[in-house]
Amino acid sequence: APSPEYNSVSAFHAKLARSKRILAVCGAGLSASSGLPTFRGAGGLWRNYEATALATPEAFKEDPGLVWMFYAYRRHMALQAKPNAGHYALAALARKNPDFLCLSQNVDNLHPRAGHPPSQLHLLHGSLFKIKCSSPTCDWSDPANFSDPFCPALAPASEDAPSSPDQIHPLLDTSKPLPHIPASELPHCPACGNGLQRPGVVWFGEALDEEMLDAIYEWIAKEKVDLVLVVGTSSLVWPAAGFAEVARSKGETSVVTVNLDAERPENVAKLKKKDFAFAGDAAEVLPRLLE
Ligand code: BJW
Ligand code: ZN
Questions:
Q1: Is the CB of 38 under 6 A from ligand 1?
Q2: pLDDT digits over 95-126, tens only?
Q3: Which amino acid positions bind Zn(2+), per UniProt (predicted)?
């Protein structure tokens, strides 16, 4: 059961001041107030597709043009978006505390753009701006591709967002069919000439980068983790969902959840004695907690 101070900002500040090793696990809710939709719940639909159904190797195999249009649109939106005060607060904590490590499931490049030191950031699910070859036998990749549009066939994804908020991006207007894009119109790998280029993100069923995982588990195992921040994630996707509990295994660890739904009774009931929970927009709550 939680302590009566589970949502006290001053009690949290006291805990933070005593914390040396700090881990953060972030998700799409952190970028929500930058205008980027989350995966589940409201906003999790792209046209009539579940965003999570497009984020699979099977979907890419079935219709690479459709999946590419989804990613080209998200690249365009992420390039238009700006990091918010939550990203900046985490980046500032990292500069202040070399023992702070941030793990983010977000692929939108907003942590790096907020100036988060790269050595204190692991992008668990890759990046929209990394491109790799989809052939399993080819390891070509381009770590930084910001082309927008990505290629001529995907230009509809990069049309300007409408100026008024009640207008819809032309690509999201489901009364107009999506253009079918054949694989021949998508960029192929410059190394093998064979595989299609694909976004350098981690789809369901694909493994996270092994060296990165080793480095994360090694960091956690090195010494007790004092504090874990779980920010804007539904914690449904593994292995990201498990890092907070792995961190607890080293001794007494406080887990602080920052999420719109953090203070719902069923979530509060799950807190351990030294845990915290703060309901609200991560872009508003994090700066208050980390100031
Ligand atoms: C706000 C807010 C605001 C809103 N402020 N908060 C063990 C058990 C069961 C299954 C598995 C397991 N181990 C592995 C699996 C399989 C699978 C998995 O986890 N499945 C589950 C769904 C059950 N995992 C994998 O396949 C992973 N690979 C792997 O483990 O390989 C080895 C292996 C394979 C198979 C079996 C066993 C082992 C890979 C996972 C890759 C996930 N990829 C995606 C797409 C990335 C590319 C892209 O961006 O398109 O990653 S799916 C999608 O979900 C995306 C996200 O990063 C990820 C997490 O979502 P997130 O960030 O939590 O977003 P939401 O929308 O879910 O939640 C938003 C939250 O924010 C909500 O809580 C809101 O309340 C909140 N919020 N506004 C604060 N303003
Ligand atoms: Zn290739």
A1: yes
A2: 999 999 999 999 999 999 999 999 999 999 99
A3: 133, 138, 189, 192
